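Before any further analysis, we paired sequence with structure tokens, yielding the entry below:
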Amino acid sequence: MTASRDKAQKEEEMKPESRIRVMLVDDHAVVRSGLSAFLMAFDDFELVAEAESGVEAIRRCSQTHPDVVLMDLMMPDMDGASATRAIRERFPDVQILVLTSFKEDELVQDALQAGAIGYLLKSVSAKELAEAIRAAYAGKPTLSPEAAQVLIRSATRPRKRDYDLTPRELEVLSLLVSGMNNNEIAEKLVVSRSTVKFHVSSILSKLNVSSRTEAVALAIQQKLVT
């Protein structure tokens, strides 16, 4: 009887609904195959879906509603960050764990801003990945050391000064950067030369510079205009 009860308890623990339901999203079949084999090695994971693009990921997520999605970033049709944002908007209870080969600052920030709960590189160990999946399921973030460094740099980077330029002043400043003189700016914006002169004077005052050349140099340095 004891053996029978133990067997029944084990079967109960192994039921699919008691496992963390995982979806794999990667455009490389070999990677998905490897991750699938990895998931099968753990009793508390269940592979419920695979997708090879961001568009397919959204569709498959709607069909299977996984608990955790392992999301690649570089894919055809729709990148991982865009797919993450779309899935999180439609299914806020689905957690996205980015698993990628890329560690560029912009990619990390885009993914986390899109709603990913974690960011790991594909060089991560099986144990670390398993722990990250369980953490994501519990609503806890996991970041690779590289991703953590990106957030630290972002938090400690000096904030860009706000010079309180109006939209029109920014437009005039952009034209100054492009090399236009007052007459050309007036013609471009269909305003009088005196109006342009007024805007230029205001720009110099707000930027605390004494010449157009200094204003242009500061605008480029501070990336005030595109």
User: Anything to note?
Assistant: The domain at 167-222 is CATH 1.10.10.10 (Arc Repressor Mutant, subunit A). The longest strand covers residues 45-51. Confidence is low (pLDDT under 50) at residues 10-16. The radius of gyration is 26 Å.
